[in-house]
Amino acid sequence: MTLVVDCILLALLAGVGVAVWRSRDLLTSVALFSIYSLLCAALFTLLEAPDVAVTEAAVGAGFSTMLMLAAISAVGRSERRRRRPPLIAAAVVITAAGCLAWGVAAAPPFGQPDAAPHVHVAPFYLQDTPEAIGIPNVVTAVLASYRGFDTLGEVAVIFTAGIGVLTLLRTPKRRGSERAATQGRKVQASATVFVGPDHVVPRVVGKVLLPGILMYGLFIQFHGEFGPGGGFAAGVLLATGFALYTLLFGVRRARQVAPAHVVETIAAAGLLVFLGVGVVTVVLGGSFLDYDEFGEGPAGQQLGILLVELGVGAAVGAVMIAVFSAFAVFATRYRAR
Amino acid sequence: MELIGHVLVLCGAVFVLIGAVGIIRFPDVFSRMHAAGITDGLGAALVLLGLSLAEGFSTSSARMALIVAFIWCTSPTACHALARSALTAGLTPRTTPTPKEPDRR
Amino acid sequence: MDLLGHYNHWVAVALMMLGLWTAIESRNLVKKLIGIGVLQTSVFVLYLSFGLTEDGAAPILVEGRETYSNPLPQVLILTAIVVGVASLSLGLALVMRIGAAFGTVEDDDLDDSEARP
Q1: Any A CB within 8 A of C31 CB
Q2: Please, which chains are in contact with B (at least 3 CB pairs closer than 8 A)?
Q3: At what angle do helices C7-25 and A87-105 cross, to 10 degrees?
């Protein structure tokens, strides 16, 4: 049965992918991309990857779409087609497709249990996790403990991207003459991105649901050791909740609820907590991010994983909130056409 | 109990199909939104309710009931927001038959 | 599962190339970013297809279950998704600044226009 659903989902993905390419309206492309991400999340659930599915649904179908919509409201939603297709680029893409298909055909068939990726390191992690770490979710164990150093690098990358976005979108206050030059292109605030105060239904429903959304984000954060979840998915879910609040009530009130300097401090603090755990283990006499310094066996490992996941969740969530706030403010101020 | 659950899942799938056909065939934005609302509100809800009945009473079925409640809150709100933005953009509901279909009297 | 052979992998490769073609062929900067997003998500599909084992469950250990799917591709893709959205946000921020400065985000028009303050 899973074969049939798998084939259907992949066929739908192909159809949506072609539609994303062919549509002329950027709003349609963004909506189709959101559908594409949601179908991929369903496919990931079918491929026995629930953590990845939760994260992809939150990120792709939720957060990416909101960022793209903010960008479109700033730059305009129509797209001009070129008259003739670039033939050299087409030849390159077709050659790349052929090489990839040939290379992938040399891979073991889909689902074979004794293929090379499954017999080398994976059985070690699956067997060692119950004794050494003691939590059921092997993905969290590998992410936060066995391969914790890689995760530190990923959080640093996310933080750097956040710094880049804030640097790009925080335009300093303009001087008088420059302000006159850009006057013609500014739009009325709250004309494009946000609902106004007379949108009663979304506001009321949003107010009722928002605590549930935030609670669910926290649940995913702390339950990540026992079920699908973890810091990354939780951070994005919390950020989506704040983005919903921003969309419903405007940037000014959202800035009162989550002030910019607080959010940026939390982002930096999350990364520093992760680094700090490593430094503390070194100070206590072990290697960097060696959780055995916290205590023998599973207890020490679980404390280390808890702290590290908190750092990840705080950093990812705060970076996403800051990025969305910056996008929202910029999109209401500037419009290209 | 399991049989009722499976029947409900099938009904939900039928409603999703009806909604999908409606989205394609209806002539007007507002009627298409109406069809899309059926897909979410009735189709997905019936599928989830049927699954939770087939499952028996457990944490999974309680979670599915919560998901249904969440869908019933968010889907009509989304349709409302869409309809509102369509009105603000200047679209009005179509009240006459489409020109291609001759008015059979 | 072995009936499918390489169907999953080939469709994932086709989707990757579709995203890459969208990114190359379109003139609009936002459409290019959407194409790269499609490319990224299809790469995730390919990786997770490599990670599945026949009647393996999700890698969350439960009593009485012996075979699990490979957790390593999932760990890799989990972080890759969030890094992908971070880099997408950086790209979109660049596009918005270009749009505000030049008034357009179409490639052809950008070649002809100059930056305004």
Answers
A1: yes
A2: A
A3: 160
Report chain A residues whose CB lies below 8 A from the CB of C40. none
Q: Which tokens hold the place of A297?
A: 């066996």
CA–CA gap between residue A181 and residue A160 (Å, rounded): 33
3 state DSSP class of C53: strand
Give the count of beta carbons closer than 10 Å to the beta carbon of residue B78: 16
A contacts of C6 (beta carbons < 8 Å):
104-105, 107, 109-110
Of C28, C60, C83, the CB nearest to A138: C60
Using the Cβ of C115 and the Cβ atoms of chain A, whether some distance falls under 8 Å is answered with no
Residue carrying structure tokens 């579709």: C18
C16-33 burial: b if 16+ Cβ within 10 Å, else e: bbbbbbbbbbbbbbbbbb
Side chain identity at residue A319, one-letter code: V
Evaluate whether A247 touches A195 at the Cβ level (below 8 Å): yes
CA–CA dist C34, C36 (Å, integer): 5
Q: What is the DSSP letter of A93?
A: H
Is the CB of A209 less than 8 angstroms away from the CB of B70? yes
Give, for A33, the enclosing helix (H) or strand (E): helix A26-46
Chain center to CA of A336: 27
Query: What pLDDT, on the 0 to 100 scale, is given for residue B97?
Result: 72
* Total-model pTM: 0.90
Q: Which residue has the tokens 């609040």?
A: A245
Chain centroid to Cα A42, Å, comes to 17
Which subunits sit against C, judged by 3+ Cβ pairs under 8 A?
Answer: A
Say whether C4 and A185 touch across the interface (CB within 8 A): no
Estimate to the nearest angstrom the gap between the alpha carbon of C99 and the chain centroid: 24
Non-local (6+) Cβ contacts of C24 within 8 A are A86, A89, A93, C32, C35
pLDDT at B100 over 70: no
CB contact under 8 A, A44 and C9: no
Q: What does the block give as tokens for C72?
A: 């390593």
Q: Do B74 and A209 touch (CB under 8 A)?
A: yes
Predicted confidence at residue C53, as pLDDT, reads 81
Model ipTM value: 0.92
User: How many helices and strands in chain B, by DSSP H and E?
Assistant: 4, 0
Distance CA A182, CA C69 (A): 57
Cβ burial, residue A256 (10 Å; 0-12/13-18/19+):
exposed
* Alpha-carbon gap: A196 to the closest alpha carbon of chain B (Å): 11
CB contacts of A205 in chain B (<8 Å) are 73-74, 77
What are A136's two structure tokens?
């059921």
Q: Which of residues 35-94 of C touch A (CB under 8 A)?
A: 35, 37-38, 41-42, 44-46, 48-54, 56-62, 67-75, 77-79, 81-90, 92-94
pLDDT band for C1, please (50, 70, 90 cuts). very low
Give the residues of chain A that fall short of pLDDT 50. Answer: 175-192, 337
Lookup: tokens for A61: 């179908």
* DSSP letter string, A180-226: HHTGGGB--TTSSSS--TT-HHHHHHHHHHHHHHHHHHHHHHHTTTT
